[in-house]
Each structure stands twice: as structure tokens, then as C-alpha cells.
Amino acid sequence: MDLRRTGTRRPSRARPSPPCTPLRYALASLLALVSLTSLACDRRIDIDSFGRVPNFALTTHTGESFTQNELRTKVSIINFIFTSCQQTCPLLTKKMAGIQKAVQRQQTQIQLLSITVDPSNDTPDALAAYATAHDVRDSNWKFLTGDAAEVKRVVVQSFHQGMAEDPTHPENILHGSHFVLVDKHGTIRGFYPSEPNDDKDIHQIEGMVKLVEDALLLVMKDPR
């Protein structure tokens, strides 16, 4: 559709379209993510509730204790990975990095948590090395591990995600790929599909767009 003005003036010569450089693409992606904030402002706050997260005790990749009380200070976005995973987990980590950029202005009120499903091998040091390898530097993104039985209880019972050994590939671990959203009262507010095998930017994945939008809504609802 021609959007130029009509009238008596001589139309200007059309300029050639600029090339689609990586920088232009990055800017377009950023604008798409920023627009989610506007969506949050226009939408009524009405998000499901799936119960409060029970007590638990895990350890961060920096060696600090992390309990259910840490879920009651910020909105939390949670996913599940393990460091030796070569296929799905790097893509899940990339999606979390995209979410981090999308909520950057609210980073004091939103924390990101990646819980390992292989705690026997994923020690705090192993998770710290994984974080470094994926250029995770901000303090609002933590990787969590702990006692094997406790981790499985947290993943399966607290966050309602699958977690099991792969009978055909013993080195692999089967686990849920949904992201979980928790509000500042420690209540689960949603489970969001991530299209784990698809290397898309998050603004191209409906579940991830919805996750960012709902996280911003929760911050607006409880801005403390």
C-alpha cells in the first residue's frame, strides 16, 4: 500500500530500501520486545493461580543458599536445564537470555532461575562454568542445584515438571521444557511452552511473549 501523501505537489523519488543488516535486525527485535510493556499497560491483570510453592532448599551457582523465601521478594521466571545437554538446553538458555533482555528495565523486581535436573554432576562450580560459557553475568539470573532427592522433589512436585532418566540414552535426562512464572508471594501463576527445539527469538514464540507480558503485569500489580 502506498502511504505517500496525495495532492498537487510532485511526488518525491522513492528511496531504495536500506539493507537488512544485523544491527537493523537487532533493533527491530528490541522494539518488538519493548512493545510488550505497552501491551501490559493496556491489559487487565487477570492471571491464573496454581498454588504456592512448598518449602525447599537449594544452592546457587555462586554457593549461596536459596530457599522458597527467595521467591517471595521478586517475580520469578524458572526453567530447567543440565550442563551436559547438547541439544535442547542451550536453546532453553538462549530463550532465557532473550527474556532477560526483554525485562531488563524491571531487573530489580524480576529474577531468572535455571534449575538443573542433573544435580549429581551439576555442582555449583559446574553451573558457574556453564553460566560463564553462556555469558550470564547479571546477578538477577541464578542457576540452582542441590541434593538429588531434593532437586527431584522441587522439579516434579513443586513446579510440576517431568524429570526422568532416558531408558534408551542413559547419559540423557528427560525433563520438562515449559517455563514457570511465580509471583512475589511464591505462588505459581503459569506454565509457558517454549518450543524447545526451535531456535527462534522469543518474540516469535507465542508462549514466551505471553510469559514476558504476564511477568510485567505481575510487577505492575505488586511494584514493591
How is this structure best described in words?
This protein is α+β, with helices and mostly antiparallel strands. It has one domain (47-221): 3-Layer(aba) Sandwich (Glutaredoxin). It contains five helices and nine strands. It has a seven-stranded mixed sheet, sandwiched between helices. Strands 6-7 form a two-stranded antiparallel sheet. A hairpin with a 4-residue loop joins β1 (57-60) and β2. α1 (22-42) crosses α5 (206-221). It is globular, with a radius of gyration of 20 Å. The N and C termini lie far apart (47 Å). Residues 1-44 have low confidence and may be disordered.
Annotation keywords:
single chain, 224 residues, alpha+beta, Glutaredoxin, 7-stranded mixed sheet, two-stranded antiparallel ribbon, 5 helices, disordered N terminus
Task: Give me a quick take on this structure.
The protein is an alpha+beta fold. It has helices spanning 22-42, 88-102, 124-133, 148-158, 206-221, and strands spanning 57-60, 65-67, 75-81, 110-116, 141-145, 163-165, 173-175, 179-182, 188-192.
